[in-house]
Amino acid sequence: MPTRIQRRPLRATAAPYSAMDEPRRSAATCNLETALTQPKQPSGQCLLRLNHDPKNIIDNPVPEIFVEPEKGNVTYVHAVIVGPDNTPCQGGLILFELKFPLDNPACPPQVRFMATDGGRVRFNRKMYSSGLVSLSIPGTFDGPSWNPETTLKSLVVSIQSLLIEGTGVRNLA
What we know:
This protein is α+β, with helices and mostly antiparallel strands. The protein has a single domain (20-166), classed as Ubiquitin Conjugating Enzyme, CATH 3.10.110. It has helices at 22-37, 44-59, 152-164; strands spanning 65-70, 73-82, 93-99, 110-113. Strands 1-2-3-4 form a four-stranded antiparallel beta sheet. A hairpin with a 2-residue loop joins strand 1 and strand 2. The termini are far apart. It is an enzyme of class 2 (transferase).
């Protein structure tokens, strides 16, 4: 007797297209194009940018933000943000991993929240237990999206602002 395939109901429905979807579509398209045509080595412009941006943060520090490119691979950047005062994560060290595409600054980096305790921790409604950071700059949320002028500094300051706004269990609903 043949095995029956049981269909599961869809968990999400597609929303109608609107102009607000454009930044997200652009980032998704950029990631697809990057995946299909990505060179094996970072472009010269990418190397210049990824060597300059961390040095800029070191020379002009942002309070409570620390960045360090991975040794041997400047396209992976680790960012540590100290939990802001008057939030549940006050004083904690919150780790993020940023993966820049080899054609950066043309396309946005992927941003991942690393302090999820195996998917059990979520600090606010825009930082998911899967590690996804819902932010407009890398194209994972509506709003002003990535452009080639966006710097590492502006990206990590935006992430820091997520920790200040809407932090806490009461905001997860």
